[in-house]
Amino acid sequence: MAAFCGDDVIAVAVKDSHREATPVRGCDQAEPTGISDALTAVARGPGRPNDAYMQVPSHVEYERAKSIDHALSLLTRPETRVLAGGHSLIPMMKLRLAQPELLVDINGLTELAFIRRDGDELRIGALARHADLLDSAVAGECYPIFHDAERVVADPIVRLWGTIGGSLCQADPSEDLSAVFAAVRATAVIRGQAGDRTIPVRDFHLGPYETVVGPGELLAEIRVPVRSGTGSAYEKVSRRVGDWSIAAAGAVLQLDGTPERPVIVSAGLGLTAVGAEHFVAAQAEEFLRGRAADEESFAAAAAIAAEHCHPSADQRGPQDYKRHLVAELTTRALRRAAARVTLEA
Questions:
Q1: pLDDT at 291
Q2: DSSP assignment, residue 96?
Q3: What's the CA gap between 303 and 300, in Å, rounded?
Q4: Element (H, E) at 189
Q5: Predicted model pTM
Q6: How far apart are CA 253 and CA 264, in angstroms?
Q7: Integer distance in angstroms from the first to the last C-alpha of the chain?
Q8: How many C-beta neighbours within 10 Å does residue 198 have?
Q9: DSSP code of 54?
Q10: Domains of the chain (ranges plus CATH)?
Q11: 131-189 pLDDT tens trace
């Protein structure tokens, strides 16, 4: 089994529990659409006792990593999981959907907890917390989309403990930051005993609850290119504050031209919880390139994004409703992203 980073590593257990019913077109194809839904579905499944929610974890060993090298050596052992925030891993262990033999606590690895700008890159350590990203002035200055998204991630308690790396490695189809990092075209730095390797975040997720992080590896940081003339925004609809998305859209626009006639140089569009392959609306991005940054272009791109996503009907709504949300939220995100770009006359 792969070793994943952070608080949200439950991948294989949830994926396996729905394998027969889940066609994998992209990383947003899984049903149920969030870890809370997965817990409910499995706990209420055939043959489950009524007290399924009352289970306790099976026996597990615990090691607190003293260094990154120490953590990597521990992660080579079979059935090992990383513990950071624990907001998804611990519930899965309580239901015995995840039964690791060893937990590797990386909370002491403060060298992985950073957010800083380094030249033309914004660098975010995997152990940085959601609250750190929300409070980071440099991250908000480079990409306001980070603050937009973090304001609607769960609740303050989760944001204080949950980690950026854990969220990405969770690969939950309804997870907000996966779409955000896809929209900004970030790069993941994966560390192993042989050294570092990099991979675009758009290639990071292999499917629902599955990533490219292998045994003996750890997601170390995420690097985001910083470009001039860029604006970004994130829009989300959920059933209640802090809940998983019914649908969400993130937009990043790089503009050129004049304030009166802005032109789109490049576009990044991330979609959450609607079956977008690798969390991206690639066809809509291609459509926007070279077009005027106006309402007509935004509406047309949003329609393309809605057409090419693959939402699943569930307790959050039917497919048509979710496609409507994709079109509306994409338009709003593009409009706000363009408004945040400052062009010289």
A1: 98
A2: T
A3: 5
A4: strand 187-192
A5: 0.84
A6: 7
A7: 55
A8: 10
A9: G
A10: 11-105 (3.30.43.10), 110-225 (3.30.465.10), 230-339 (3.30.390.50)
A11: 999 999 999 999 999 999 999 998 898 999 999 999 999 888 999 999 999 999 999 99
Residue 275 one-letter amino acid: G
- 210 φ/ψ angles, rounded to the nearest 5 degrees: -145, 135
- Amino acid at residue number 267: A
> How crowded is residue 117: how many other Cβ atoms within 10 Å of its Cβ?
15
Grouping H, G, I as helix, E, B as strand and the rest as coil, residue 326 is helix
Task: Report the distance separating Cα 82 and Cα 5, nearest Å.
Answer: 6
pLDDT tens profile 314-324: 999 999 999 99
Q: Which helix (H) or strand (E) holds 93?
A: helix 89-94
How confident is the model over 298-307, as pLDDT tens digits? 999 999 999 9
CA-CA distance, 243 to 201, in Å (whole number)? Answer: 24
For tokens 């997965």, the residue is 38
Q: How confident is the model at residue 21 (pLDDT cuts 50, 70, 90)?
A: very low
How far apart CA 282 and CA 121 sit, in angstroms, is: 23
Closest CA to 64 of 107, 24, 119, 124: 107
Separation of alpha carbons 136 and 127, rounded Å: 14
pLDDT of residue 332: 98
Residue listed under structure tokens 């032109």: 263
Residue 94 sits at φ, ψ, to 5 deg, of: -65, -35
CA distance 213 to 8: 13
Please answer whether residues 82 and 215 qualify as being in contact, where contact means their C-beta atoms are separated by less than 8 angstroms: no
Tokens 């030249």 sit on residue = 119
Q: Is the dihedral of CA 199, 203, 207, 208 positive or negative?
A: positive
Instruction: Locate 256 and state its tokens.
Output: 């050129």
Percent of residues in the chain assigned helix, strand, coil, to nearest 5: 35, 25, 40
Residue among 225, 284, 221, 224 at smallest CA distance from 249:
284
How far is it, in rounded angstroms, from Cα 168 to Cα 219?
A: 9
Nearest-angstrom CA–CA distance, 308 and 325 = 13
Tens-place pLDDT, residues 60-93: 999 999 999 999 999 999 999 999 998 888 888 8
